[in-house]
Amino acid sequence: MSTNVKIAEAPPGVEGEGFFATRLDKVIGLARANSIWPLPFATSCCGIEFMATMASNYDLARFGSERMSFSPRQADLLLVAGTIAKKMGPILKQVYLQMAEPRWVMAMGACASSGGIFDTYSVLQGIDKVIPVDVYVPGCPPRPEQVIDGILKIQELVKHESLRRRSSPQYKALLTSYGIE
Amino acid sequence: MSAVTNEFLLEKLNEQFGSQVLSAELPYGMLTITIAPDAIVNVLKWLNEDKILKFRFLTDICGSHYPDLKDQELCVIYHVQSMENNLRLRIKAYLPISNPEIPTATTLYSAANWMERETYDFYGIIFKGHPNLKRILNVDEMDYFPMRKEYPLEDATRTDKEDQYFGR
């Protein structure tokens, strides 16, 4: 059967008639990485660029992120796109807390990563002041290609994450450093 | 209908409030008067209720900080408009920074509620009699008034800027 559809590569394993044996964490990683549901936390121009990333020209759905999750309960990836004012900080943190583990965070653009040009008393100087961040995408705003690259970086993290990571003392310590129990 | 002019308005104001109108100017054709802070409610009320003037729309209340003016460091600026006469008026009241208190305009205009909260939020001006004078735009935990000139604009928690490249 010939097809143009690209299928994710199977993890290494032992194949025989009617069975395929491999590592469970590889299978879980494969499934998770190719079905990331992002929650777009878009506050400004990066949000517009992210819409372009989702739309037909760039089509983020090709990478398994077909569905935007506007409920944090069903989201895997918190995608923060835009300037976060200090008053928004606790709200962002609450959204992060409402997400179920495992969860990942991507800071899209200069503002979410560092405050960007808004070096001022009212703006949070990077979302990593309130929640842990996995991938930073630079740019003001980043091109859709950069966003896709960031998503692919997230996918690599997801694919290779140990199943024990979320219960490790290092991860607990990371959350504790953000005041999250 | 006879048009109400700036000159006519100033004449009426002087006639009504006399020495409480401290000064008047006309920047860019908009009449701007400075009044004694305690007179503000009476002035706004009279402007609103006058049969000819009809200044019934409160456009804005904002603040300003002049660190060099002794005992007049803070200023509250009121903008009112007379829709029927197509005329605007700017009213200023200067306050000492040691005691920045002025009566609230919420008794006349409900719209003054948020405007005064904003002015309090950024300049620390106390509007006596305001029903809910607390911060409106900034975080509640903020312990200073950020638009006063002694405070820097930049955020102190910024970590990715090298001071030497930014003249700090």
Give descriptors for this structure.
heterodimer, A: 181 residues, alpha/beta, four-stranded parallel beta sheet, two-stranded antiparallel ribbon, 6 helices, 6 strands, B: 168 residues, five-stranded mixed beta sheet, two-stranded parallel sheet, 3 helices, 7 strands, 20% helix, elongated
Secondary structure: elements and pairs:
The complex is a heterodimer of chains A (181) and B (168).
Chain A: E1 13-16, E2 19-22, H1 24-33, E3 38-42, H2 45-54, E4 77-81, H3 89-98, E5 104-108, H4 109-114, E6 135-137, H5 144-159, H6 169-177
Helix pairs in contact in A: 1-5, 2-5
Chain B: H1 6-17, E1 21-25, E2 31-35, H2 40-49, E3 57-65, E4 74-82, E5 87-95, E6 101-103, H3 112-123, E7 126-128
Parallel strand pairs in B: 2-5, 6-7
Antiparallel strand pairs in B: 1-2, 3-4, 4-5
How many angstroms separate the termini of chain B?
A: 60 Å
The level of helicity of chain A is 25-40%
Low-confidence stretches of chain B: none
Give the percentage of residues in beta strands of chain B.
25-35%
- Which spans of chain A of ≥5 residues are poorly predicted at pLDDT below 50? none
Compressed to H and E, one letter per element, the order of chain B equals: HEEHEEEEHE
Q: Determine Rg of chain B (CA atoms, Å).
A: 18 Å
- Structural class based on helices, strands and sheet pairing of chain A: alpha/beta
The strand line-up of the biggest sheet of chain A is: 3-4-5-6
Number of DSSP strand runs of chain B: 7
Q: What general form of chain A does the structure show? A: globular
Order of strands in the sheet with the most strands of chain B?
Answer: 1-2-5-4-3
Count of DSSP-assigned helices of chain B: 3
Category from helices, strands and their pairing of chain B: alpha/beta
| Major sheet of chain A | 4 strands, parallel
Quaternary structure annotation: heterodimer
